[in-house]
Amino acid sequence: MKPSIPKGTRDFSPEEMAKRNYIFNTIREVFALYGFQQIETPAMETLNTLMGKYGEEGDMLIYKILNSGDFFNKLNPEENLFEVSRLKLAAQMCDRGLRYDLTVPFARYVVMHRDQLQLPFKRFQIQPVWRADRPQKGRYREFYQCDADVVGSDSLINEVELMQIVDTVFTRFGVRVQIKINNRKILSGIAEVIGEADKITDITVAIDKLDKIGLEKVNDELREDGISEEAIQKLQPIISLAGTNEEKLETISKVLESSEIGLKGVEESRFILDTLQLCGLNNEVQLDLTLARGLNYYTGAIFEVKALDTPMGSITGGGRYDNLTGIFGMPGLSGVGISFGADRIFDVLNALDLYPQEAVNATQLLFTNFGERETAYCLPMVTACRKAGIRCEMYPDKAKMKKQMSYANAKNISYVALVGENEMAENKLTLKNMTTGEQQLLTVEQLILEVF
After folding, report:
1. What does the alpha-carbon distance between residue 22 and residue 24 come to, in Å, rounded to a whole number?
2. DSSP 314-361
3. CA quadruple 223, 225, 228, 232: dihedral positive or negative?
4. Which helix (H) or strand (E) holds 18?
5. Of 1, 65, 323, 353, whose CA is between 20 and 30 Å from 107?
């Protein structure tokens, strides 16, 4: 059989891994700059941990792991397997699943390790997640998330700091982005004032798709979910609201004047936006009342980030969750977090060709191999270069000059060190710049200064 990989997954070449490591290292450095500490959690969690946290749609996208042994023993022999719901059957045959995101496993981690944590706890995590989604451009079944969360603090300064992290990361990448924010309390207030408070989940799930499917189809979905025509008409001017952030806040304040929770969301949004103005970000922050973030556990501010110079979905998102740990027996612990979509950022940086050359070129210097004597002469020099911090290698086999130069070109190696009888006689080597073609006769100390 011809080898293949599952749809929605990818192999990464050495060059691609160098680019990905540039992304991870940049994000990791910025997280550390803001005082976040790294943890890791297992690739698989119990289904009790995962199920019921992402809404019905999210539960369907969790990869379930088949139990080992005779799992059919747990099935009721009188039930027709074709009549049993997929979720019920999965629950009987599987008790573990691959993690869907990093936030729920983090909540489980906090509860299990609460006695060892100093609150507020600022953690970051860079690991893969899996979703049984339909693969398409920018959407994969296996992908990395880079998360930062703060738990144990209700302060909105945390939201401000996370937006500063977003701004810092994308400024370092050289990517222009638009940071969109909203608040689930505003959305709850909107559901109240249009008379559909009990349909808040259906409303948020539908309007969160506005960018993807358009207003008409969003309205159709709302009708299918049982939202009244009167409520849908009241919703139209709200989700179409335009103007500056301040103008939107003023308008929505009047709309929500009868909703206590809605006005609380307006107050929180105003604080975040005003404080970010004081911080002087490099990227635009926009209040977007259509931003809903479909996950059920968000309770306050919500965020989404999109690249401005290339078509791509959300590349970063997150928000406030007031009681996520409550589902694991630790109520009342507030948290807020963001997640960078590393795979989408990878595609954005590729599309815009924004990788620094030094980040993707692994080897800086190649020592050629013209025989045993030359190799014995070069090896101490190779060691000296590595000690100086130069990424270098020795061509392992005696080979023709053309073959060794082709190797250097294929790996985009910037410099080649050539050693023959003349160089050994003078205790020097010839350094060739592979970009300019210039050659110099140098000592190893001079070479280090030239290359480094």
Report:
1. 6
2. -SEEEEEESSGGGGGT-TT--EEEEEEEHHHHHHHHHHHT---HHHH-
3. negative
4. helix 14-33
5. 65
Extract the tokens encoding 92.
């009987």
Phi and psi (nearest 5°) for 46?
-70, 150
Tokens at 17, concatenated = 């891994």
List the one residue out of 220, 226, 228, 188 whose CA is nearest residue 204. Answer: 188
121-130 and 415-418 beta bridge pairing = unpaired
Interatomic CA distance for residues 442 and 302, integer angstroms: 59
Task: Report the C-alpha gap between 333 and 152 in whole angstroms.
Answer: 6
d(CA 138, CA 230): 37
Q: Are 162 and 337 in contact (CB under 8 A)?
A: yes
Pairing of strands 121-130, 94-98: unpaired
C-alpha to C-alpha distances, 151 to 103, 118, 344, nearest whole angstrom: 11, 10, 27
Run of H or E including 19: helix 14-33
Q: What is the pLDDT of residue 103?
A: 86
Contacts of 74 (CB under 8 A, 6+ apart): 92, 93
pLDDT at residue 27 in the model: 97
pTM: 0.83
What one-character DSSP code corresponds to residue 58? H
pLDDT at 57: 83
Q: How confident is the model at residue 366 (pLDDT cuts 50, 70, 90)?
A: very high
Q: What does the block give as tokens for 3? A: 């080898």
Pair type for strands 94-98 and 64-66: antiparallel
The predicted pLDDT at position 224 comes to 86
Question: How far is the C-alpha of 48 from the C-alpha of 438, rounded, in Å?
Answer: 65
